[in-house]
Amino acid sequence: MGSLEARAQLLDRHGPQLPTVFGLSSLAIMGFSRGSWPVAIDYALEQDSLLLVVISPEGETPLIYRLEGKKGHWVSKLQIPPSVGEELRVSQYLVQTLDDSVGQVKPSHIHIHGIAAGPKAVGSIGIDQVSFAPSSIYLGHEKAQFTYHSISDFDDTEVSFVRLAKSVKGEILAAAANKKAMGSIAQNHMKKGDWDGTIRTEDLVKNASPEVEQWLAAPTGQHILQVRAWRSRDHGGDFVTALSETIVAVQ
User: Fold this and answer.
1) Pairing state of beta strands 156-166 and 89-99?
2) What distance in Å separates the CA atoms of residue 172 and residue 168, rounded to the nearest whole number?
3) Distance of alpha carbon 12 from its chain centroid, rounded?
4) What confidence tens digit (pLDDT) does each residue in 132-185 have?
């Protein structure tokens, strides 16, 4: 990712960044952080689990939090300590869920609906009412429709159409197969758009294993919608990423 300033410019222009391919039992996001910032995480657990959040501002000791790990749907809020300082810092946010039973430690399934950081992004989760429908479309003949609502003003937003698959180990894998720039959004406004099911995965498969490459290159599959919204460094650096609860299957 280059120098610290290059990473800061990337976040400033293109918002929070996620890995090319990631598992849904954990989620890593690169974004800004600042001392005293609130952070909110909206998630659902399929079983009682050990749920950890690690926030690593560059140049600072990582901050480790334990969240509510009972089965169910939760919105947990935490605060970055003031000691991190007033300066915006490029940071890594990691949400990791683990089986809470005694014995071998292994990932546990979690559905992360949204992560928000910064006072302008956290009330609940800064982007909500994410809709993605219908449940299936035929490639080349139909389009999926999406909408989302904002609780704040954001300088820019982008949607990604995230392909899902289950690995041989049973983990749910995800990768953004296409994306669409959506521009700024004002507080309490809605954005809407559509997607024809086409994918652009050339950059994703360059360093992928043959199995992952085959999965990403396939013309059809199951997808969820991911919305990313952010404010520039000059406007605070707050960010949010939100996922739809519904799946659209492209056939």
Assistant:
1) unpaired
2) 10
3) 17
4) 999 999 998 999 999 999 999 999 999 999 999 887 777 788 999 999 999 999
Residues 108-133, mean pLDDT to the nearest whole number: 89
CA distance 243 to 114: 6
> What pTM value is reported for the model?
0.90
Residue 112, both tokens: 């992360």
Does residue 118 come out as left (phi exceeding 0), alpha (psi in the -120 to 50 range) or beta? left
